[in-house]
Specification:
heterodimer, A: 481 residues, alpha/beta, 3-stranded antiparallel sheet
Chain lengths: 481, 37
């Protein structure tokens, strides 16, 4: 699909099926829009004549532009043939669970207003800790379920995982021991509010965790409003101090890994969130930043809906300008949602696969319950099973007993619900220029905002498209130098 | 092409093996297309 847009100071045309894009002047921009209206066919002399008058340019100039576009189209760079694909192109064998969100505890030392995990207890009223035994069963399940996949991911999540730190340490060592034994490369990530970070934990994380995500909402007043401590106590000061210390250590030579994100949630209370990005970059000195929209029921006083989109788009454009200025100044900031490899990237089939919710990805609670993803935890109808059953299908070496499958311990109906939704087949996806950059959107966002796994979550779709435009604009802007 | 500046050549690739290998990191809102093989 060909998409032409004007953003900030540039006219751009992008072909999602080839991945190519061009910067145009005003005249050629109006010409390509005529091509788009005619599905790639050269505009008629009558249409060019009208354009010639409105732009006060000669017809021969427009013919020259059309000749250039015809050459580009002939080589398949614009109006490229859409890819035809089927299930087996994306999943040549059956989908294998290879990524897990492991809930280290369902408790938290903050009381964030917007927490989808109900401030840690996932709305159950019961706060709980993962045991080493259940954690090991979850890891054994992941290894068994992953089949011949080599690269596995585990995210230590919560609640607040640092509240159950000894279990994090023990399970990390267990992954390092079991991974090589089964020919697996297990990559670990931890997501924390940083309140309990100290030098010892920082050193351990920097030695073992491929990625670390630290939560802070930007400016102090924004953060303290939505992320208070227990009893409503402001939490910005201690958290910002610990995050600065952590990112400094993370970027030092002593750290085995570099990857990390300082991450914020924005709500309708801070739709000027580009100011929070600036705060994170300039005051917290973060260079890896993610600022993400809250997903909440529409009746919440902090939720985001379609009426907020124009302001958010404006803010994304401000952010794109800021990121470009930083890059020119030699102080680049990586912003998660604009982080797209426009010059390379993965194969086309990977681009069509999403997060693999319930099929390649799952979440495990402190009680061992398996859910399709961390946001579905507590939704009883999507409970898939419990990791305590895993030893009924494994031998003494923790390998699958012949004839057994890891899916034997999962609820077949729930599994099928998510298998049936692995293909990005919604009608709106088929004609969307962002289809190779959004993975089909978020099933949990759709479910919690519309009540259906299939209904389009329009806010999510529109944000994905705007982020792609910003990423393309940044590529075009960087080509100036 | 004085009116048209190509910024990016075609990048969408069908893999030689004809299907996804399944080893890629799963994405979440990996941002889908920010990592090459």
């Amino acid at each position: 699909m060909v998409h032409a847009f004007f953003m900030i100071d540039r006219h751009i045309v992008y072909d999602s099926d080839s991945g190519a894009f061009f910067e145009l002047d005003e005249i050629s921009y109006d010409v390509i829009r005529l091509y788009i209206d005619a599905d790639g066919m050269r505009p008629s002399p009558e249409l060019l004549s009208v354009l010639s008058e409105s732009h006060q340019t000669t017809l021969s100039e427009l013919v020259e532009i059309c000749n250039d576009f015809d050459s580009i189209i002939a080589e398949g760079t614009l109006f490229a043939e859409p890819l035809e694909y089927e299930y087996h192109h994306l999943y040549p064998d059956q989908p294998r669970i290879k990524a897990m969100c492991l809930h280290i505890c369902h408790d938290c030392n903050l009381r964030c207003t917007y927490c989808f995990a109900g401030t840690g207890d996932y709305g159950t009223g019961q706060r709980s800790m993962l045991s080493v035994e259940t954690g090991k069963a979850a890891i054994d399940f992941l290894i068994a379920a992953s089949g011949n996949r080599k690269h596995l991911d585990i995210d230590f999540f919560g609640g607040e995982p640092l509240m159950n730190w000894p279990v994090v340490v023990e399970l990390t060592h267990y992954c390092n021991e079991q991974g090589p034994k089964h020919g697996k490369d297990i990559r670990l990530t931890i997501t924390t509010n940083a309140l309990l970070l100290d030098e010892e934990k920082t050193a351990f994380i920097n030695k073992h965790m491929k990625n670390c995500v630290l939560s802070i909402d930007g400016r102090p007043e924004v953060h303290n409003r939505m992320r208070p401590g227990i009893g409503g106590k402001p939490s910005y000061e201690p958290i910002s101090k610990r995050i600065r210390a952590f990112t400094s250590a993370r970027q030092s030579e002593e750290s085995s890994f570099y990857e990390h994100y300082v991450r914020a949630t924005f709500t309708r209370h801070n739709l000027d969130f580009s100011e929070d990005v600036k705060h994170m970059a300039e005051v917290l000195e973060a260079s890896q930043i993610s600022v993400e929209p809250v997903v909440a029921p529409d009746d919440c006083d902090y939720s985001i809906n379609e009426s907020h989109l124009p302001k958010i788009f404006d803010e994304y454009e401000k952010l794109a300008r800021y990121l470009h200025e930083r890059r020119v100044a030699g102080e680049p900031v990586n912003f998660f949602h604009f982080n797209m490899d426009m010059s390379n990237g993965p194969c086309v089939y990977k681009r069509l696969k999403g997060c693999g919710v319930g099929a390649e990805y799952c979440a495990v609670t402190p009680e061992g319950d398996i859910y399709p993803c961390h946001q579905f935890v507590g939704e009883a109808k999507y409970l898939m099973g419990n990791v305590s059953s895993v030893y009924s299908i494994l031998d003494e070496n923790k390998r699958l007993i012949e004839g057994k499958e890891a899916t034997d311990i999962l609820d077949k109906n729930t599994l099928q619900i998510f298998y049936d939704r692995l293909m990005p087949n919604r009608e709106s996806c088929k004609t969307c220029f962002a289809r190779y950059h959004c993975g089909g959107g978020c099933a949990a966002n759709r479910y919690f905002s519309t009540g259906s796994l299939d209904e389009e979550y329009k806010v999510g779709c529109e944000l994905a498209k705007k982020r792609l435009e910003c990423s393309i604009w940044l590529s075009a802007a960087s080509s100036d130098s | 092409m004085k009116h048209i500046k190509q910024i990016q050549k075609a990048t969408v690739k069908v893999p030689e093996r004809g299907h996804a290998c399944g080893e890629c990191q799963t994405s979440c809102q990996c941002t889908v297309a920010n990592q090459s093989c």
